[in-house]
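Lecture 7 notes: from sequence to structure.
We start with the chain below.
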Amino acid sequence: MTEAARHGLSYVYRRIDLGELSLQPDEIGEILTWAERLGYDAVNVTHPCKQGVIPHLDELSPQAAGLGAVNTVLLRDGRRIGHNTDTSGFESAFREQMGDEEPGAVALLGAGGAGSAVADALLRLGARRLDIIDVDRSRAERLAGELARRHGVPVSARSADGIADVLAEADGLAHCTPTGMREHPGLPVSADFLRPDLWVADIVYRPLETQLLRVARERGCRTVSGGGMAVHQAADAFELITGIRPDPARMGRDFARLIEATGEAPSRPLQPATS
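Predicted structure tokens for the same chain:
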């Protein structure tokens, strides 16, 4: 809302928290109906509804259709149009925090809605190989097949039991599961698997300083925090909803102040890498 006010827009943004309202993810269709009746222009969608929302939509952008995941729904003239700004948001965050470095060989944890978006971004960024690990092996295999078909790059589904071997061969780790969130604390991988020449990205941003990022930095890894992706996907969604391109850098400063106000002060500023 702060960025909207700078552009002279009267912008109302309200949170619909499933937990607080005792709602289930499979009620997402009803939630969209409420939003339409209340006059909403759009709805942002987050975990765990990014894939489950699709059957309730009338149309998907090409990118959302390719990913099989949606994080922004435009409500226009009685139609529900799904978009995905997670993938462009991660791409921008990686470039912002890692400079021109290519991802190399990447181990990706989580083949859900966020994982598919990050995987697609990593391949656009030039990843030469991608190994996907998910507790649901069949989901990882489906995502790997689709990505390999679209990008023509080696993409494999790997067993969670072999994560040590996958990381030993990787240049980077992209974490795309709920582990590390307030409701799901902990490390998604053993700290012993993190070595100094590995870059580590975490999409979790509440808290901004996850245990994974903290341990990775202690072990000398370069890191990409979830805050960057959160800001850039929001900027891209704002443009879809309003038709106005916001200032992501300014939004990043607003985001940092918001995090600090909640007592989750970032361990370092959201800014481009210097090495």
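Points to note: The radius of gyration is 18 Å. Strands lie at 42-44, 59-60, 72-76, 79-83, 105-109, 129-133, 155-158, 172-175, 199-202, 222-224.
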